[in-house]
Amino acid sequence: MLRRFAVAAARRSRGSIGASVGSSMDHQSRSLSAAAIATAEVVEEEASKGGCAGIRKLSTMTWLSPLTIGNVNPKVMKCEYAVRGEIVMRAQLLEQELITKPSSLPFEEIIYCNIGNPQSLGQVPITFFREVVALCDNPSLLDKAETHALFSADAIARAWKIIDKIPGKATGAYSHSQGLQYCREEIAAAIARRDGYPAKAEDLYLTDGASVAVHMMMQLLISSEKDGIMCPIPQYPLYSASMTLHGGSLVPYYLNESAGWGLEVQELQQQIQKARGSGINVRALVVINPGNPTGQVLSEENQKKIIQFCKDERLLLLADEVYQENIYAEGKKFQSFKKVARSMGLGENDLSIVSFHSVSKGYYGECGRRGGYMEVTGVDKDVKEQIYKIASVNLCSNISGQILMSLVSNPPKAGDESYEDYVRERDGILASLARRAKLLAEGFNKLEGVSCNQAEGAMYLFPRLHLPERALKAAAAVSMAADTFYARRLLDATGIVVVPGSGFGQVPGTWHIRCTILPAEEKMPALITRLTSFHQRFMDEFRD
Ligand code: DCS
């Protein structure tokens, strides 16, 4: 009875608020009248049709907002992004508790191993990049004598060059929607140097991080759930989230954990047939190389097979290459998909490739600067106009991100004043990442019931947990996935934040966690000790 009354009252309140728009009723009396009608009770009703469509929960608000949890776009409701999911939210609460009631917790700090955000864990930015960005943002410094004592000569020269090329000489102005011509030319020249094949500024779209570029491509490709995109499992959940938001179908293909997370073309063939058999129009294939969360670096032979598959099946190849500078394994080398395709004699008329890159990763780790790009090759001029249109709706990506992308593409060269410092900083970070990756994998592999592939590249380990039956039952009893249960226990006992494997997808019945290799090197031994003693206690508690 109360339920029905409250919903009816809420309907009336909506009408009265609507009617009051434009009247002399002030904000306060409007809220009061709404409050008088809509109760503070929590009212649950399944999403209804018509009239007050979509009201499901009126929550504890004292008026009925036109935007309720019952009428939020269902695609948004369905979308999940585990990298910042429930475990991380709990970690943030515990972090507050460490300030207010430190003695209540069995650890002194939260260690965020959930996200590939190197500078948040103490990684220091590359000096040259920051000098140039600072000078571009405050060009009046360029005329001052003191600046020459504080900044390197090549940073000053580069900043002058950039400022001179920016229309209006202003970093506070919108740029061309694809990005500044100068930056795109620098990036295109770097791609050509890297690959030994030409690259064009007009094929580049500079974006606020690679994420935006991925969303743009999903927008372009997906018009209904009949449109399918092939995606690795495990995958970085940007892909599943973006497909869900745009209403498409994720066509999974599984990476082979026992073959070092290898990508097998036979699996691609089986999955595409299955999807087509159920009426899905498979349009594109996502490959993340080096892999996230899996860390594998594909061999050239493997890449060739993937390229041939895309050509044969007329699929757009979406090559996520944001970790191209994060390679740690001996003998492994990054090769871009475009380079491998060109080396096979495949040109613009044979294969469509979109390659994503970012300032967030590599040795620079400038995540907060939001710089990135996609290089679009092998698609028609008319399609590129549509991509340009989507880019232009956002006006442009931020200028510091664009400048940074041009800088990481064209760092100091031998003979430049900054060169030695730059090489020392770069190599120091990459060597330390390689050591941390190895140390942490060894740590995981020593744990009872845990197996962990080495990270050949990228920034993550994705160890498999073979959990005792009693732990699985305990997780089920509290309606949690077993890896979430483990990650939650780990957080509560140690302050270490990892992401449950279920957020990335995994073979059903297997359980994993994803842990970044980013905590500071000097903290690694203590972290591994904490992890080890937690794990032992967990296994002892649930041993069958
Ligand atoms: N592609 C991959 C494979 C990524 O791992 C990320 C970020 C992105 C694209 C998007 O990055 P930017 O938008 O910053 O360029 N990696 C997330 C992760 O797994 N941890 O941190 C962020």
Q: How would you sum up this structure in a few lines?
A:
By secondary structure, the protein is an alpha/beta fold. The protein is 44% helix and 11% strand.
Query: Shape, please?
Result: globular
Range of helix content: 40-55%
Which ligands are bound?
ligand DCS
Beta-sheet strand percentage?
A: 5-15%
Q: How far apart are the first and last residues' alpha carbons, in Å?
A: 50 Å
Low-confidence stretches: 1-58
> How many individual helices?
19
Strands of the widest sheet, in order across it, are 2-8-7-6-5-3-4
The largest sheet is: 7 strands, mixed
What's the mean pLDDT score? 89
- Determine the structural class based on helices, strands and strand pairing: alpha/beta
- Radius of gyration equals 26 Å
E-strand count? 14
